[in-house]
């Protein structure tokens, strides 16, 4: 009987720990996406002429996007589940999702280098990043609740 109670208690603890990890993962996803959104917003304003071009700030923003994209791999593990605005299609088309994330990481890193060279290079680099974000959101992000 003691062994049975111990097994049940262990199972409940493991289930609780899994729930906490899932909540932490969802919170980390949201925080990382907000970080990307802030960085993208900064370069978007520069691109639209709503704030002056600043090569160093643009490079930093693109680096933030690249670093965050690399972190996405840990935020959407193969055995993960949809939470927040993430859709089940992430796991149904995991190879496509992972390829998009890798492309965003490498394109953003390249954009950071280009953005520091001058405004024309910045605008050309920016033009490659926006559509990548948008296409992934269209496919893998749900509507706001």
TrEMBL record:
<dbReference type="InterPro" id="IPR002321">
    <property type="entry name" value="Cyt_c_II"/>
</dbReference>
<keyword id="KW-0349">Heme</keyword>
<keyword id="KW-0249">Electron transport</keyword>
<feature type="signal peptide">
    <location>
        <begin position="1"/>
        <end position="22"/>
    </location>
</feature>
<dbReference type="InterPro" id="IPR012127">
    <property type="entry name" value="Cyt_c_prime"/>
</dbReference>
<dbReference type="GO" id="GO:0042597">
    <property type="term" value="C:periplasmic space"/>
</dbReference>
<dbReference type="Pfam" id="PF01322">
    <property type="entry name" value="Cytochrom_C_2"/>
</dbReference>
<dbReference type="InterPro" id="IPR010980">
    <property type="entry name" value="Cyt_c/b562"/>
</dbReference>
<feature type="binding site" description="covalent">
    <location>
        <position position="136"/>
    </location>
    <ligand>
        <name>heme c</name>
    </ligand>
</feature>
<dbReference type="GO" id="GO:0009055">
    <property type="term" value="F:electron transfer activity"/>
</dbReference>
<keyword id="KW-0813">Transport</keyword>
<protein>
    <submittedName>
        <fullName>Cytochrome c-556</fullName>
    </submittedName>
</protein>
<keyword id="KW-0479">Metal-binding</keyword>
<dbReference type="GO" id="GO:0020037">
    <property type="term" value="F:heme binding"/>
</dbReference>
<feature type="binding site" description="axial binding residue">
    <location>
        <position position="137"/>
    </location>
    <ligand>
        <name>heme c</name>
    </ligand>
</feature>
<dbReference type="GO" id="GO:0022900">
    <property type="term" value="P:electron transport chain"/>
</dbReference>
<keyword id="KW-0408">Iron</keyword>
<dbReference type="GO" id="GO:0005506">
    <property type="term" value="F:iron ion binding"/>
</dbReference>
<feature type="binding site" description="covalent">
    <location>
        <position position="133"/>
    </location>
    <ligand>
        <name>heme c</name>
    </ligand>
</feature>
<keyword id="KW-0732">Signal</keyword>
């Amino acid at each position: 009987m003691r062994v049975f109670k111990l097994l049940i208690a262990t199972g409940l603890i493991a289930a609780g720990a899994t729930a906490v990890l899932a909540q932490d993962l969802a919170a980390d996803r949201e925080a990382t996406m907000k970080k990307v959104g802030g960085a993208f917003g900064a370069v978007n304003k520069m691109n639209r002429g709503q704030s002056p071009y600043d090569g160093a700030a643009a490079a930093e923003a693109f680096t933030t996007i690249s670093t965050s994209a690399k972190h996405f791999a840990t935020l959407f593990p193969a055995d993960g589940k949809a939470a927040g605005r993430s859709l089940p299609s992430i796991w149904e088309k995991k190879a496509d999702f992972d390829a998009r994330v890798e492309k965003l990481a490498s394109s953003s890193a390249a954009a950071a280098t280009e953005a520091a060279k001058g405004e024309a290079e910045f605008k050309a680099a920016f033009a490659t990043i926006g559509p990548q974000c948008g296409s992934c959101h269209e496919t893998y992000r749900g509507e706001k609740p």
